[in-house]
Design goal:
This protein is of the alpha/beta class. The chain has two domains: 174 residues, Medium-chain alcohol dehydrogenases, catalytic domain (Quinone Oxidoreductase, Chain A, domain 1), CATH 3.90.180; 146 residues, 3-Layer(aba) Sandwich (Rossmann fold), CATH 3.40.50. The protein contains ten helices and 19 strands. Strand 13, helix 5 and strand 14 form a beta-alpha-beta unit. Helix 3 packs across helix 4 and helix 3 crosses helix 8. The longest helix is centred in the last third of the chain and has 18 residues. It is globular and about 60 Å long. The two termini are 14 Å apart.
């Protein structure tokens, strides 16, 4: 079959014919035709040879790229009752170790051993291929009204998990407002990529007052999204005066220099969510900052990956936003390419681009 493959540790991606050992589907398995696959920063890191945790499956010297998948069911095993031919599905990315309790109950996003595999990232072929076979328990059925927009479900699932963690942890105190909503709470999002946009939309949907930060003015698409959804966009290259005191700050950049100066903006009993990851940068954390974390009861949350439940939550939000905001979701998909164009799309991210999608069908 045709697939986009990489050799982890080496730079570059190839669209070529590959042979993958997949027997005929078994009772609980499903054969899926790939329709669309999203490209994200993890893919860019792998194609650039910069992620040392990327690895091929056992017995292979290559890895099929891609973890933001959307496909159509072509065939189901005789024990599958939740899906039928023609259904649209989104596959869950991480598969558990089978040893720790979290993995045994479907929360492999909290794997304790670190022996999990992830599609298109480590130890498991991804979805940038013509078709694949998967266990039905790792497939999330897509509402028909969403169609191709469901390709956004994987990045959004990670946001759903982080938001759920925040609300759970903040139950340590009374965090609701007097009217029982979150309308008195301020959320500040660092960055303006797809993950940042989804964080902003999720907080706004839950009545938070949202501010998005970048070191530049918004581009045309970002301006449209912020105006439609109803959050404020601040260019921090002009200083931090316009950034409000915040109950929660979410960093999607991964750069300490982006979020450390904002610690002074955190209110009592606030939270800092660290989501973005990069390598190499160093910034100083002072004892005064530690004192503020202690004296203000500030919590730090690191969050990665998502469970099947989070995928289902994300699909529900996508349906809500499609009805509420019209073409805003579609405008987030700023570029659509063919599989043979994957390498250039990954290595040369277009200026002003939010989300690039590979179209397989």
């Amino acid at each position: 079959m045709k697939a986009v493959i990489v050799k982890p540790g080496e730079k570059g991606a190839t669209f070529s014919d590959v042979e993958i050992k997949e027997d005929q589907i078994k009772g609980e398995e499903v054969k899926i035709k790939t329709l669309r696959v999203g490209i994200c920063g993890t893919d860019r890191g792998i194609v650039n040879g910069k992620l040392d945790f990327a690895r091929p499956p056992a017995g292979y010297n290559f890895l099929v790229l891609g973890h933001e998948g959307l496909g159509r069911v072509e065939e189901v095993g005789d024990k599958v009752t939740s899906l039928k031919e023609g259904d649209l599905v989104v596959p869950v990315v991480r598969r558990g170790c089978g040893k720790c309790l979290n993995c045994k109950i479907g929360r492999q996003d909290f794997c304790e051993t670190g022996e999990f595999v992830e599609a298109g990232i480590r130890g498991m072929h991804g979805f940038m291929r013509e078709e694949f076979v998967d266990d039905a328990k790792y497939l999330v059925k897509v509402p028909r009204d969403l169609g191709e927009l469901a390709v956004l479900a994987e990045p959004l699932s990670n946001v759903m998990k982080a938001f759920d963690e925040l609300i759970f942890i903040q139950k340590r105190s009374i965090w609701h407002c007097e009217d029982s909503s979150y309308g008195c709470r301020n959320a500040t999002i660092i960055g303006s990529g797809p993950i940042a946009q989804f964080f902003a939309m999720t907080f706004e949907a839950n009545r938070f007052n949202v501010t998005m930060l970048n070191r530049r003015d918004p581009n045309e698409i970002e301006e449209k999204i912020s105006r439609t959804v109803g959050y404020k966009f601040v260019n921090t290259s002009n200083g931090l005066d316009e950034v409000p005191e915040s109950d929660v700050i979410v960093d999607t950049s991964g750069y300490p220099s982006a979020f450390i100066p904002l610690i002074k903006k955190l209110k009592r009993n606030g939270a800092l969510i660290l989501f973005g990851t990069v390598g190499g940068e160093k910034s100083e954390i002072t004892s005064d900052m530690i004192t503020k974390f202690v004296e203000y009861n500030i919590v730090v949350i690191g969050s990665v990956n998502a469970s099947k439940l989070n995928f289902e939550e994300g699909l529900s939000y996508l349906s809500l936003w499609k009805a509420r905001y019209g073409d805003v979701l579609r405008s987030m998909i700023t570029k659509v390419v063919k599989p043979e164009e994957t390498q250039s799309a990954v290595l040369d991210k277009a200026k002003g681009s939010i989300k690039t999608i590979i179209e397989w069908d």
